[in-house]
Amino acid sequence: MNLAELFYYVVSLSVMGSILAIGLLIIKRLFRHKLSANWHYYIWFVLIARLLIPFTPSAPFSVFNFIPHYQQAIELPQLTMPSETAATTAIQTDNSADITQETLPGPKNVQRPLVATAKAWFNWQTLALTWMIGVSAIFFYILLINLWLLFKIKKLPLCDSADILRILQECKANLKVHSEVSVVYDDSLKSPALFGLLHPKIIISQELVKKLSSEELRYIFLHELSHLKRGDLLVNGLVLAIQVIYWFNPLVWLALSQMKQDCEIACDATALAALKPEEYKKYGQTIISLLELLSEPYWVPGTLGFVSKFQVRRIVMISKNKQTSLKWAVVALALTLVVGCSSLTNPINPPDGQNQGNPLTNNPQTDTATPNSNSPSSPDSNSIVYKNTEYGFSFTLPESWKGYSIVSSQWEGLAIGSQQSGQAVVETGPIISIRDPKWTAQTPRQDIPIMVFTLEQWNSLQKDVFSIGAAPIGPSELGRNNSYVMALPARYQFAFPEGYKEVETILESKPLQTQTTQLNPDATKSLVLNMMVFAKQGKVINSDYAAKTTTIEDVEKVWGKADKTDYVATAKGGYATYTGRQVVFGINKGEQLFEVRSFDSRLKSVTLSKVKEVLGNPAYDAKTNGQELIGYTAGSEFKIEMIFPQPTKDNPNPVLDHYNVLYPLGTVNSMADDPGRQW
Q1: Angle between helices 214-230 and 162-175 (to 10 degrees)
Q2: Integer Cα distance of 600 and 581 in angstroms
Q3: From the CB of residue 598, how many other CB atoms can be counted at a distance below 10 Å?
Q4: pLDDT, tens digit, 9 for 90 and up, residues 358-412
Q5: What confidence score (pLDDT) does residue 596 get?
Q6: Which of 255, 344, 403, 675 holds its CA 20 to 30 A away from the CA of 630?
Q7: CA 27 to CA 31: how far, in whole Å?
Q8: How far apart are CA 470 and CA 489, in angstroms?
């Protein structure tokens, strides 16, 4: 992972953390005097988690789903492009003729943005370098301060007063602190403070000790020992490190500074728990007395002090010192969970392109759904169509793109975790970039980059076998056929060059159409094996929604209502048809998915003999209504059933019509003594 990619992660998390920080500040404001000090402090750990965890699961309830895709994060270059001074590319001048693709000469596997930035000084590398300089400067400043303090403390005189040490031991016993803690004198440190993770020390001015009563000294020791008991020094170091990393974000600094204040107040609450109620007022008075004695309280990085500049709220919390009522605790917890969970998940990015116009029909008599023939919509008469016969897709462009050119390059897939071990490239594939005819080296414009994956590569990418670039989101699917998946890079418009809005408008019209290609035997075998792999998870190849673990409500939250829903008595449930998705879901009375059917266009390359060759003899084989149904067990809970036209003399080896993954236990009705379906 290079510096620019690392900075991309930091900026992305910074934006997400800022949104979460605002939510937490609002919650704290709403429950300012209704929650205890500990509540106010511990809810900040949700923000700590957001700022530290780069990879989080996707969910439909993420607050970032409301941010348009191109605004989700600041994008970095990821495409490998040939030299901008390369030879002329093939030009499309006819609306219907196939284009010949030529890879332009130039250095290979050199990462560069789609936009020429040779003259631009304000780029990601510059920003990343500036950020790292800031991190390094602040880190070394804090390190030097703490090394100086550590060196200085070793030379400071230890407290040997029997009375003071007795008070310290009493406070340790009261708080049940078993660590060895010493007291050292330092007249230059104005406020009493705790320092040291391994060998903690309470630093206090000898002149201040002379002015304090034994009771006031006891309160100071209780406070500093409370920090030790709660592990606040360790948390303070973590917060300090986060502030260094996010030094450029004032909102993160504000939130974490507020967390430090809440830490002091929570520490006061721990100390007060060791006191009698009648001593609360005296404890608060001690803080006021110290403010009167100290002309300018200050904080040293790496220490936790007794006196700070936010005393008004602190005194109020001390005077109240109440526990949070159950009612307000439940309300605050619910709001925190809503804000926290929605912010700790990344957005779901549904595929931009879905094959449209293949209506599925459900036949109650045979319990099957049959797709109609594929007939893509005709492009506008003024549009231009780029056709790629090698990978089986076409792309409709507006008339203004007449004279476009094609730039070929490659994407690289890196083994997960290899960013720290030599950038191991485990997969590669083509990128076909359609270039605006108005593009020039002096005035670059946004390309339309189309990444091409084999089905096996795409499935591996979804399973995180490898990654493309450093972004936490991957490419978004534009369309697929029986051999390839065409996808849009996640960061294609990272620099927002001229024409990027026009490209977004083109993509919104779903311009990519696919055609069936001839699969080679190895690819067909891979497809059948993948069908079985997904079946063991309760899924089909073109849907992430699994039988058993998913409800129809989960599907509707993302896909919306089904095109139609029919009840089929012989199949033991209702069937919801999603025509454009080429998927049908079987639903039981509990709204649980017990069956998932796929009519994916890739299935047209799978023959009956090929399935039996790859998966062996089926556990179930039946012929009915002109169809042959064969089934296999998929793990311990699911079964996979494939529906073919019945073999005939003229068609002895038919191709697969559709298939389904069944969860048999989901069809059982114990109340009606119905054992359910087996196939």
Answers
A1: 40
A2: 8
A3: 23
A4: 333 333 333 333 333 333 344 455 788 999 988 889 999 999 999 999 988 888 8
A5: 96
A6: 675
A7: 6
A8: 12
For residue 553, the model assigns a pLDDT of: 93
Looking only at the bridges linking them, the beta strands covering 638-645 and 627-634 are antiparallel
Residue 80: which residues within 8 A CB-CB, separation 6 or more?
Answer: 108, 109, 110, 111, 112, 409, 410, 411, 412, 431
Instruction: Give me the half-sphere count of Cα atoms (radius 13 Å) on the Cβ side of residue 223.
Output: 27
Structure tokens at 427: 């997969």
Residue 445 has pLDDT above 50, yes or no: yes
Tokens of 612: 């039996």
**Residues of the chain with pLDDT > 70: what percent?**
72
**Residue 17 has what pLDDT?**
84
* Neighbour count for residue 75 (Cβ, 10 Å): 21
Q: Which residues are 603's β-sheet partners?
A: none
The lowest-confidence range among 215-224, 289-298, 311-320, 414-423 is 311-320
DSSP single-letter state for residue 443: S
* Residue 531: Cβ-neighbour burial (10 angstroms; 0-12, 13-18, 19+): buried
**What's residue 81's pLDDT?**
36
Q: Which backbone phi and psi does 312 adopt, to 5 degrees?
A: -60, -55
Q: What is the DSSP string of 576-634?
A: EEETTTTEEEEE-TTSBEEEEEE--GGGGG-BHHHHHHHH-S-SEEEEETTEEEEEEEE
pLDDT tens per residue, range 606-661? 999 999 999 999 999 999 889 999 999 999 999 999 999 999 998 999 999 999 99
Q: For tokens 């070793």, what's the residue?
A: 154
pLDDT tens column, 651-662? 999 999 999 999
CA 16/CA 67 separation, integer angstroms: 11
Structure tokens at 426: 């485990």
